[in-house]
Please model this.
Amino acid sequence: MSHRINRGEQMADETSSLTVAKLKALCVINDLPTSGKKAELVERLLGAGLARTEVGLSESDPVEEAVEEEVVLSLEDETTISIEEDKSEAVEAVIEDDEVLEAVLVPDLVEEETEEVFTPVATKRKDAATLADMIKDPKVIAVVIVSLFLGAAGWWYINSTLEPFTAEPLRYGDTMEYSISGGLGDRPAVMASEGFLDLVFNFLEPDDDYCRIFMDYEGRGTLGVTKGTNQLPPVPNNLDGAVRSQGPYGSNDWLAVEITNTYEFDDFDIGRNTYSIINQGSCPDAEDGAYVPGQAVLTTTRHIELKEQATLSTAFDFSATIDNKPYEGFAKTFDVGGLLGSLDVVLPGVSLMLQPIELQDLFATDVIEEGASGERLGWRWRVVGEDTLGEDKTWKIAATHVDVERLCLGSATMEIWAEEDNPWATQQTVDVIISNDGSLQTDCSPFSEAFGDYILPEGELELHHTFKATKLTRGAKVLDLGKDYDLRPRSNILALDDDVQEDWGGQEELHPPDASSMRQHTLEKAMQCFDHIGGSASGASAALDNGGYIWRGLDKRNASTTQWNVSWVHPDDTSGWVLFEVTGEPSSENCTYLDKGSFEELASYNRESIPAVANMSTLEQRLSDTTRYPQLSGMDGVFDSSGDYHADTRIGFLVAVPGDGANDLLGQLTSTSVGATTVDVSRTWEEGIWEHAFAVAIDATDGRVVGWTKLSQVA
Model:
């Protein structure tokens, strides 16, 4: 069926230089029908917006004439074929199917070719296939499937190969959220007994005499690097991200990196054992199951000084409800300390077990790859191999604490999963048992056993928990560690001058100098009371008359009365204490003997190791200076707003020297021949239903504050 159409417009006499096949390819590319003669294809492409040159026409418009076309409509085929079509179309009729596919899909079909003259073929050509028709061809489908498979296989191979890497450096603004799960099998998350209780509950003062504590917890944590903003006085622009930080001498001009870690325990359950009544003095070995429920939020904040890259301070803030009893507390230490206190000094690196480790702390710039190993911060580590966490490939690393193992103190191991783009451990499991009771000291040398008994308290400590990252957010700027900055404080300027120090030990004096103007009954006045109470304290008097000295003192003031408790040591290492009271000027009427006793463990006598110190008056002035230490004054401090002591404030001192006795605190922490003297100021008071306790300690040799603590609990 056919009819003639008058298009009512002029058609171009100009013929396209492109073949029909190329014009149809352009139609396919532009999602246009491919039916019709050459002129129709050209018109269709021009109507779709193609330029004249793109369809093989000259740039100028030709003279258009009216043309009548014969249109053949077919019910059988979508494409209409005329014997008057371009000769090149006749050639297409003998092209094989796969050749037609190739002719349409090859991109350079639209490139200009020199037109060739072909002899027409008598047979009618096969219809040109559309793109939809082509991809239905089984042969094409097979090719596509194979290509996709090979491509997917290549992608899988590339992405399943875990490349070696070095640990990512931290950036300002880095944050990782993670889950916390405590316990290992039937072992609780934390178990501490006897002497180790002070490490775990350093700030709590339980009502009962507990000998063993169990803790189980579940929750989440957030570990992050603060992105500091410009402060007053401003941080230099090139060090933007750092924060201003307080140092041990009171200066607030240090620049530091601030790293915070917050634990949010939805479940914080505690079990407690008391000493056995039947077996007097013994502590039950097993968990008694008497858990009390609780919740807790604990936050640690560590400041790392930029230039020296050393820990400037560590702060610990907590709030908890245990057995429906609320607790709040805060502690800050400078240079030393942390959650594990002195244990981290004895065994460096044990604090890495308390939060997801920073990979650079453990691995530095070592390449993390299969078989790699090393030792750093007390930990010996080895890359076990590849492992999968969820859908992510990670390196699995095993680490063992060298000193815990070498000294037969128990075992401390970690398993760490590390990813290239995460500066912290993606997952970390901790399994620790430390004890000095001999149960973990099989096949140990006598030296190791003796060393363990020497440095560790009585009892055991266990840690079993897992950290697993849930969300990671990276910052932009790498930390400025190692960089110097203008006006950086100099410790030798901030510290006390040598001319204020007194060598009382070398001068055969009886005690550290006091000379306070803030307290009525100084230590100098109190010691005059021995002239009046000597008979009641004969041991102390004999020791002091024969070269002994006072190594610990603590006062308690009440109105016009001061109660002193002093601990003495004789040159033969015998030691004890005397409690007495002073009212007014020392006399037989104003000096009252109260009590005395001796120490079961002998104290150490070592005058040669006693350092020269500033007197207590100088130290009191530094501590009460609100420009240096504003945290120590006010309602929650040890000084009132006027700079005087609160009425319930107590002051004391401690002389620690290397030796073998009860005051050998330094010898337990480090090997040194130089002693130390600290002055401590404490206060306990009630406010409503709350009972508060605050304490601060300062190094008497150079005026450096060691740290302070505050604990609040329901009275």
In short: The first strand starts at residue 2 and ends at 12. The chain has three domains: 2-129, 166-473, 498-708.
